[in-house]
Amino acid sequence: MGRTAQGWKLRRDPDSGLYYVRFTLEKKRFEYATGERDPARAAVAAARIYADAVAGRLKRETTVAASTVQADVAFGEWLAAMKTTVSESYHETWKIYVRAHFLALDEHGIAQGPFRTMGDFTDAKIATYMRKRLGHALRSTVKKELSALRSFLRWAKEQGWISEMPLVPKIPPKSVGERATTRKEMATELSPEESELLLRHLPVWSSERKRRFPVRAYFRVLWETGLRPSTIQRLEAPTNYRKGSAGLTITRIVDKNRLHRLLPMTDAARAALDEVVGESGELFGRHDWRDFLPAAAKAAAIEIGPLSPYDLRHGRLTQLAEGGNLPGLAYLAGWTQITTANKYVRPNARAAKRLLESFGGNSGGLEDPLVRSRGLEPPRELPHWNLNPARLPIPPAS
């Protein structure tokens, strides 16, 4: 909306949908939330705010610190202010916390959650929120939500939205929380052979007519690199990749842990990127990728559990970990600590078979490519004598 004759203009925040009024007074620039999502009502509120500012009646402490002020207005300003202080992934996560939990917006954008006004941020309500969330999420998830809430309340106190900082309690040491029933407890284990079969049965492009996007190339790059799906979706040309480049540049803005690095690539990954890269713009973008792998598993007649894009990453990292080069694995995966491998890599019969055979031992008659918990069961007795270094076969002297 353009500048009006009154000397102010409106700005709509794309994240919250709220309108803000901007104006310059006495050579100083001001911006205030109107608290409205409707442009007509926002214009009325903007005119009133501007008139109060000109008359000297606008005092932040008395206009926004009142307990009746809608919390979504403050959350909107907080998210806008924090955009330059945290990574994009953190900012996106905070937006999810605000919409889904702190405000619990319904389909009409109306807050139904525990914090609807600034007066709702009391010690009791925050503690109640923590206990209720522990009934629906794990301790680690609730801990992150409370951390975001503390950040918001510190900012609100600094900016005059609240007069006192309420207590955000720590989670009791013995509380573990409850896993959301809609999420898988563990990643679905995929062997390299199964992954290749899934990739061959994926469509090359999506079925949308107006805005098609590459499907097989996306999952191929995900498998070959082991990168996070969110990282691959943010890749752009020429910043991250140019056609024919030897490596893939991961910048801080696209990486969850903000690690800038140049990744080596396989020929298959480079070929997939060359298929979709242009002169500029996103390589893949953000789309709903959830249904492609289950459809490919059905087409390939693979009997397997629920599938998600992250299962390819887990499977690839498990395969790469079998090579034993953990520093290289951490570099490729974007981990800040090697011990993060404990969360992703699982022991498996395929790796055990290769380990025994590397020492010249008997693998117990297990056949390639792998022994799976949902298929062939491992033998009850393995030849444990092979694990005794004193009894290992000694190769003849050359």
Task: Summarize this entry quickly.
The protein has about 400 residues and is mainly alpha-helical.
- Mean pLDDT comes to 82
Q: Largest sheet, if any?
A: 3 strands, antiparallel
Number of strands: 7
Counting DSSP H or I runs of 4 or more residues, the number of helices is: 15
In the CATH hierarchy, what is the superfamily of the largest domain? Intergrase catalytic core
Helix amount: 25-40%
Question: Which CATH class of the largest domain is shown?
Answer: Mainly Alpha
Walk me through the structure.
The protein is mainly alpha-helical. The chain folds into 4 domains: 51 residues; 70 residues, no CATH class; 153 residues, hpI Integrase, Chain A; 35 residues, no CATH class. 39% of the residues lie in helices and 8% in strands. It contains 15 helices and 7 strands. Strands 1-2-3 form a 3-stranded antiparallel beta sheet. The protein has a two-stranded antiparallel sheet with strand order 4-7. A two-stranded antiparallel ribbon has the order 5-6. A hairpin with a 6-residue loop joins β1 and β2. The radius of gyration is 27 Å and the shape is globular. It starts with 7 loop residues before the first strand and ends in a 40-residue tail after the last helix. The N terminus is likely disordered.
